[in-house]
Each structure stands twice: as C-alpha cells, then as structure tokens.
Design a protein that fits this description.
Layout: E1 6-10, H1 16-28, E2 31-34, H2 43-55, E3 74-82, E4 85-86, H3 88-97, E5 104-110, H4 115-126, E6 133-137, H5 138-142, H6 147-177
Parallel strand pairs: 1-2, 1-3, 3-5, 5-6
Antiparallel strand pairs: 3-4
C-alpha cells in the first residue's frame, strides 16, 4: 500500500495502457485520471493523426481534467509509445500541468521500442527525475504477463515515497533545530 497520495494519469487509444494503469492503481490503491482528446482517434485515420502528432510533437486539445495534480504527492504518468515517443495527448497534459507535480513516476506500453526515449522526453518536460519507470511490450499486456513488473514498479514508487518522507522529516527537524 502506498501512504503518499498518488494519481495515475494516462492516455490509451486502444486500451492497452488503460489496462496497465488500472493494475498500477489497484496495486498502489490510488486515484486515476484518463486523458481524453477533444476529437476522435479511432481507426486508420486516427492512427495516422496520432503518428503525425507524435513525430512533430504537436499538442492536441484534450478534455478538461477532473483531478488536480497539485493535490497529489506522486503523479504516475502512463503513455503508449507512438513512433518512438510519448503520445501527443500526454504531451499536452504534461505541458499544461507539469508545474504542479511534486514527484513523478512513468510507465509506457509499446509494440516494439521507444520507452527509454519517451521517458527522457517526459523527464525533460516535467523537469523531475522519476521515482520509478515501467516499460511493457504490447505482447506482455496481451498475454497478461506483467504482474511481476507491476509489483517491482509499485515497490520502487513506494520506496521513492518513503525516501521523500524521510527527506521531508529531516528538513522539518533541521528547521525546528534552528
């Protein structure tokens, strides 16, 4: 169980990233926020639009969010990988909200590769080192072969949260002793 107040924020065009977001949220007993675009992303043309936006780092319109990320100690960001980088709706969410993040963790799903590049892009936008990262291939999700990786990710997020509490406690003690 995670004692820090956490939020899993994700975008999922096909449901793969949503499945992992649900598993992480269940494991950490935390809230979720699904990001939705203002337009339709279904079918071949939706796929092509998503690819174009990812390549050119476009910021599509997203629907209003329901949960304020400033209210959470940890925001866990999940994205599918499109053309080797994060999804454009997540890029929009990050550009609009990263200043409110206290601590972050990242996860992604993909058909082949691109996770480490996407994690680097996310880290650059949010200007914070993640407490943990998780990269899952589409086939691992399809075959439900991800529980051990989710377990490890949740443990790393929890350890990161514990380290944050210890650091904050030390700062409080230093402040009191002055």
């Amino acid at each position: 169980m995670n004692r820090q107040k956490s939020l899993v924020v994700f975008y999922s065009r096909t449901g793969t990233t949503k499945e992992i977001a649900g598993a992480i949220s269940k494991k950490l007993e935390c809230d979720t926020e699904e990001i939705f675009t203002a337009d339709n992303r279904k079918g071949f043309f939706g796929f092509m639009k998503c690819s174009y936006e990812a390549i050119f780092k476009k910021l599509p319109a997203i629907r209003e969010i329901n949960k304020n990320p400033a209210s959470y100690d940890i925001v866990i960001i999940g994205t599918p990988i499109w053309v080797g980088t994060m999804s454009s709706p997540i890029r929009t969410y990050l550009s609009q909200n990263s200043e409110y993040f206290k601590n972050v963790a990242f996860f992604c799903t993909h058909g082949g590769s691109g996770g480490s590049r996407a994690f680097g892009d996310v880290e650059n936008i949010v200007a914070k080192k993640p407490l943990a990262v998780l990269e899952l291939k589409q086939e691992e999700v399809r075959e439900k072969d991800y529980s051990q990786k989710i377990e490890k990710f949740a443990e790393e997020v929890g350890n990161g949260a514990l380290n944050i509490c210890i650091r904050d406690l030390r700062l409080d003690i230093l402040t009191i002793s002055k």
